[in-house]
């Protein structure tokens, strides 16, 4: 099962990696999160950890009843934000016998602290903004959104972090999809900002493989989670030499490197 990045849909990198694993003989599923892409739910682009995690549990419910699937050999792959939510699901859902992440993004930490912990001094202000947005939304007022902007090429180039520069190129230019968007409801931050993918991560006892680009400016999140995952004795951190965060989504040689690690990992653990 493959969980997609924040803002992504199954037709992008999640579907690509699911297809590549299917070519290795695995039965795979890539699904859009609730409230996002082709899935139902209002308001659109709600992005709450409890829903994203429940989606992964639900995918396990579904695929275990699919013809040919051995329910004792379920593997999980989460990409970017889906990686953080996959770690969260695997803490308690022991149907997953092996867990892998690619370019893991700890959504709670970033929404709370800012990327690279760059917004620590505005946490309370942003919590108030999110609380006000929820109150307005529940009162029937306008739904406010964060994270969405139709930027010019010059504005994209001026963004301070490579992940976001390349992310806008990927999601708005080269791999754009009508169901894919960076935006999420401002009220989602009430839930996101108090959450963290590494909370109780020691509950993961399953084999764990974490993959990230060696040049990714998001690498600190994978390294932090890996260090805290003390409950499993079977774990590996694999860095794809030369890759940035977004490049791991689609650059053929980096996708090959990921599949080259995932194939023996799942073969051994499933």
Q: Can you give a write-up of this model?
A:
Helix 2 crosses helix 3 (81-92). By secondary structure, the chain is α/β, with parallel strands linked by helices. It contains 11 helices and 8 strands. Helix 9 (219-228) links the parallel strand 7 (208-213) and strand 8 (235-240). The protein has one domain: Alpha/Beta hydrolase fold, catalytic domain (Rossmann fold), CATH 3.40.50.1820.
Précis, in short:
Helix content is 44%, strand content 12%. By secondary structure, the protein is α/β, with parallel strands linked by helices.
Shape: globular
Helix content: 40-55%
**Termini gap:** 13 Å
C-alpha Rg, in Å? 18 Å
Provide keyphrases for this structure:
44% helix, 270 residues, 11 helices, single chain, 8 strands, Rossmann fold, alpha/beta, two-stranded antiparallel sheet, 6-stranded parallel β-sheet, globular
List the helices and strands and how they pair.
Blueprint: E1 2-3, H1 10-22, E2 30-31, H2 49-63, E3 74-79, H3 81-92, E4 96-102, H4 107-113, H5 123-138, E5 145-146, H6 153-157, H7 162-174, E6 184-185, H8 188-192, E7 208-213, H9 219-228, E8 235-240, H10 247-250, H11 252-269
Parallel strand pairs: 1-2, 1-3, 3-4, 4-7, 7-8
Antiparallel strand pairs: 5-6
Helix pairs in contact: 2-3
């Amino acid at each position: 099962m493959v969980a997609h990045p924040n803002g992504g849909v199954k037709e992008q990198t999640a579907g690509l990696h699911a297809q590549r694993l299917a070519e290795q003989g695995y039965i795979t599923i890539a699904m859009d999160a609730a409230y996002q892409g082709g899935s139902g739910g209002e308001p659109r682009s709600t992005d709450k950890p409890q829903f994203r995690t429940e989606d992964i549990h639900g995918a396990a419910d579904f695929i275990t009843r699919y013809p040919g699937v051995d329910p004792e050999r379920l593997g999980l792959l989460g990409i970017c934000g889906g990686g953080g939510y996959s770690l969260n699901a695997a803490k308690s859902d022991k149907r997953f016998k092996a867990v892998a992440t690619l370019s893991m993004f700890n959504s709670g930490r970033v929404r709370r602290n800012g990327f690279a912990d760059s917004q620590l001094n505005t946490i309370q202000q942003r919590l108030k903004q999110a609380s006000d947005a929820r109150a307005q939304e529940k009162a029937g007022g306008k739904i406010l959104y964060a994270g969405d902007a139709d930027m010019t090429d010059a504005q994209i180039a001026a963004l301070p972090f490579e992940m976001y520069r390349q992310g806008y190129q990927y999601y708005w230019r080269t791999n754009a999809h009508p169901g894919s968007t960076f935006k999420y409801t401002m009220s989602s931050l009430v839930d996101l900002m108090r959450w963290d993918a590494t909370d109780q991560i020691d509950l993961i006892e399953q084999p764990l493989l974490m993959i990230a680009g060696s040049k990714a400016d998001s690498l600190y999140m994978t390294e932090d989670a890996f260090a805290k995952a003390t409950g499993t004795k079977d774990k590996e951190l694999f860095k794809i030499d030369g890759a940035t965060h977004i490049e791991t989504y689609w650059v053929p040689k980096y996708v090959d490197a990921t599949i080259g690690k995932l194939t023996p990992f799942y073969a051994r653990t499933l």
